[in-house]
From TrEMBL:
SUPFAM superfamilies: MetI-like. Keywords: Cell membrane, Membrane, Transmembrane, Transmembrane helix, Transport. Signal peptide: none annotated. This is Oligopeptide transport system permease protein OppB. It comes from Caballeronia sordidicola (Burkholderia sordidicola). Gene3D superfamilies: MetI-like.
Amino acid sequence: MWSYILKRILLMIPTLLGVLTLTFAVIQFVPGGPVEQAVHELRRGQQGTSFGMRMHTGVDAQQVAQLRALYGFDKPPLERYWLMLGRFARFDLGDSYFRHQSVWSLIVSKLPVSISIGVWTFFLTYLISVPLGIAKAVRNGSTFDFTTSLLVLVGFAIPGFVLGVLLLVLFGGGSFWQLFPLRNLTSDNWATLSLGGKIADYLWHITLPIIASVVGSFAVVTMLTKNAFLDEIRKQYVLTARAKGLSERRVLWKHVFRNALLPLIVGFPGAFIGAFFTGSLLIETLFSLDGLGLLSYESVVRRDYPVVLGTLYLFTLIGLATKLISDLCYVWVDPRIQFEQLER
């Protein structure tokens, strides 16, 4: 077991290096970097404190050199690459070019929004989809099975962003009813509310974003659950259990349930982490929720490379660790699986 875990951890290193190296190389050829954007702002005559100088319409070579030194572009690319790897090895993600904060503090400040969306999306998806999948497997081929399959597939076919727009038009004051707020996770007076008022206010704000996030997730988990249960129900040991006179409920929950849970349990870590970091950009943008998805998008647009590379490094590391945990769940759920089999 420990030798397998050690091998997997060692394999993470070249994967992580490959992702960072490829991204760093692409960045070198992307036009409109932070220096170019700063020069553009200077030429527009805007005034600000971002660069520690008064903005004016003229930009001379000395100012450009100062900007290049400020952002670290006065060093050769290879030197900057090794400096980046050295910082990441110490889990130092650097500082944002434009926000004047460390990347770590930015990520921590955006986590509450992403955690709210992720936790609700994950639990609602599994709490609804798993019982629905079991019911569909038991009633396979029935009208209930056909109708629910049609509904979840229609939900899967509708992008979350499109559903979010529809919800805003219907219930966010777009053209019909003003039932839910349009932005943020809480109201401006949230701090003055009672405990019950805070809970109600939070649920009031999170309702539309969560509906837009979870509807498209039902189909995959529901159909996976149904197929897993159907596969187990048709096996010989189920026929034997029924022949012994066991009730259908006992056969289903005592014998079929544990074996059918294998693909679901194994997918838990990936689904839980993925709910935080994937598919939230458009939802966060649409509902004006300042989370990790919106942070990543704005960093790419503004060429805030420390944030881009720092979040990529962190998310890739989390993804690799999640994959390892998923493999370990195979053995935890089904002891018949050995680590030697996982290595093949």
